[in-house]
Amino acid sequence: MYVALERVFRQIESELYALDAETAQLHPRSLAYKWTAQQVAEHLILSYQSTTKALRSRLDKGRPPRAKKPTWLQWSLKCMILGFGHLPQGAPALDETLPSGHLAPMDGRQLGELLHDEIRAMDQALEACRRKFGIERVAVHPWLGPLRVDQWRRFHTVHGLHHVAQLHAIVAELLPALPATPHVSAPLVEKLQIPVQRSLTYK
Fold first, then answer.
1. How many domains does the chain contain in total?
2. Which of 11, 136, 139, 168 has the most crowded CB, counting CB atoms within 10 A?
3. pLDDT tens-digit profile of 51-81?
4. Does 141 fall in a domain?
5. Which pTM does this prediction carry?
6. How far apart (Å, rounded) are the C-alpha atoms in residues 194 and 188?
7. Is residue 198 domain-resident?
8. Domain extent for 185
9. Which letter, b or e, does each residue of 39-77 get, where b requires 16 or more Cβ atoms within 10 Å of its Cβ?
10. CB under 8 Å to 124, separation ≥6 — which residues?
């Protein structure tokens, strides 16, 4: 799997792993309009499935989408999301990625397994598009317009990190007694020459 997507998946997985099936269905502050941990996971699963479907459709057609001049809104969103790595707060989810509640209640490990299957399928479709179309735009995002493979990877990295923060807040409220994830000490980081922060640059 592409390294940036793998890193995001591991962060999502680490937030979900301690949740049992009952806790994963709880709304933050008991507010029904706030997504549960399972709903966040389902949204991510649906977003990966939607992208995979668009990519496979393009592979079946054997040609990239027609090049169109981006609208001002598409250009602005590309700068914000792909350039600065910031997903606008309060931006509505696409209809096809809204949690439907069709998933049976699952614990965090089960949700992690589903997420892994879908992100891996998407990554495989992206790699197939890269081999077939090279640096051409390979599929159309409803907000951003036609994107290259590297831009799709960048989008799902930024989008995933946005929901990592959301999951962290949910889990911190539902399971406040969980011990904090141990951090690698600074001397060890220096000794191993591991960067404490990695940029979200893509190939």
1. 1
2. 139
3. 999 999 999 999 988 877 888 888 998 999 9
4. yes
5. 0.83
6. 9
7. no
8. 3-192
9. bbbbbbbbbbebbbebbbebbeeeebbeeeeeeeebeeb
10. none
- Other C-beta atoms within 10 Å of 38: how many? 25
Tokens of 95: 């209809």
Nearest to 15 by CA among 167, 184, 177: 167
CATH of residue 153's domain is 1.20.120.450
Alpha-carbon distances, residue 85 vs 82, 156, 157, 173, 200 (angstroms):
5, 10, 9, 26, 8
Candidates 193, 166, 156; CA nearest to 54 is: 156
Tell me if 201 is assigned to some domain: no
In tens, the pLDDT along 177-191 reads 544 444 444 444 344
**Bridge partners, residue 141, by sequence:** 145
Length reported for the chain:
203
